Amino acid sequence: MSSSSPATPPADARPDAASAARPAAAYISPLHSPLLDDRGPRPLLLLGSTGSIGVSALKVVAEHPERFRVVGLAGARNMERLAAQAAVWRPRLLGALDGAAADRLRALLPTGYRPEIVTGQDGYVAMATHPDAAMVLAAQVGAAGLAPTLAAAETGKVVALANKESLVLAGDLFRTVCRRSGAVVLPVDSEHNAVFQALAGHDLADVERIVLTASGGPFRGRDLGFLGSVTREQALNHPNWSMGAKITIDSATLMNKGLEVIEACHLYGVGLERIGVVVHPQSIVHSLVHYRDGSFLAHLGAPDMRIPIAYCLSFPHRLPLSMQPLDLVRAGTLTFEEPDLSSFACLQLAMRALAGGPELPVVLNAANEAAVAAFLADRIRFLDIPALIGRALDEMDVSSGAADLAAIQALDAATRRTVGEWIARAERTAP
After folding, report:
1. Which of 108, 314, 400, 427 is found 20 to 30 A from 117 (Cα to Cα)?
2. How far apart are CA 216 and CA 344, in angstroms?
3. Architecture category of domain 34-182 in CATH
């Protein structure tokens, strides 16, 4: 398989010359912290415990209860699931979206169990910075996870990062914060966890290209004519992975891969020209690293998020997991193909945003989240998602910058508001 892909600019034909011209690559954070020392069960706080990542993480913890101590669980609106989780793990701290959700949660808790319940973004930030937590699993969906994840990094936590939007919106800021605080960032996303493992023991200066794999989603091979009429139910029917609704739609549009390209640049300190994307329908090879001597190191495994989650939660160790191991013979042929950028424009839009400066990824993500929410509510069509994102990249005023959390949040809010107005105006004028 070639490391080149139409999704990225071609590499220099002379690797040594290309390497000499590159700025030094470096991982986003240190990888050593006293909080990773094995001095009893690791104190773990889960932000987004009721989502698919949080549920999988608690399955890992349940297999190894002697290795972890759950100090906090946070959800948004699924208080029934949060109450059930809390009844099992009995953390001292719970988080909910607002007061109404907190009241509902309180009523569902077992008699005699009275944890502290915090609410809203301020509550999530308080949880992320709580002195009892050594490791924070950042698994909230979307830009809502930025403030608490950044707060965890600012206080020097070990951050198991499943919220890719945090780096899409504020990658440079995270790098600065981690350098100052000593926070450790461990990537939970299957693709970036694969890259992280393939880089272990190697020098980033020897890396020619990082190659991210994409399943292609439920519409791989389909053209624009077909995509113009797909339904929400079709888009939510992912062939390989069981995920939440938002990330499943992002997989269908290839925006998830676009966000991961941006995340890769920030995680590993490399330019866009050193990131490649290939479609791999079997979801067995989770990503590859191409070294300058021609070697490729790949991470293979079953499409089960417990694998990368367990790797991060137990880092720098590995835990046995009760699952069927990958059977390469039964897996059969593994195939790779180029992404179709003409039918799936979101990947190209993400690369355009990254190349355009730190503000445009904020616009990209906010427009995408607004558009995906509208699609899931049956307010827009599937192909309206990339159209709205492209319009936002063209028209949003980014002169206020995105240098700090306040500026990022302001630009995020303005983009969501503008895209929402475009959608509402189209609804009013529709025949």
Report:
1. 314
2. 10
3. 3-Layer(aba) Sandwich (3.40)
**pTM (predicted TM-score):** 0.91
List of residues 6+ apart from 277 with CB closer than 8 A: 5, 7, 8, 211, 212, 213, 214, 257, 261, 339, 347
Q: Kindly list the domain boundaries of the chain, sorted by start residue.
A: 15-25+192-331, 34-182, 356-429
296: enclosing H helix or E strand: strand 296-300
Which H or E run includes 286?
Answer: strand 285-291
Residue type, 23: P
Mean per-residue pLDDT pooled into runs of 10, the chain (431 residues)? 40 38 77 91 97 96 97 96 98 97 97 96 97 97 93 98 96 96 97 96 95 92 92 84 81 94 96 96 95 97 94 96 93 95 95 96 97 96 97 96 96 97 92 74
Tokens of 223: 């053209």
Q: For 356-429, which CATH class?
A: mainly alpha
CA distances from 416 to 149, 323, 371, 372, 375 (A): 21, 41, 9, 11, 14
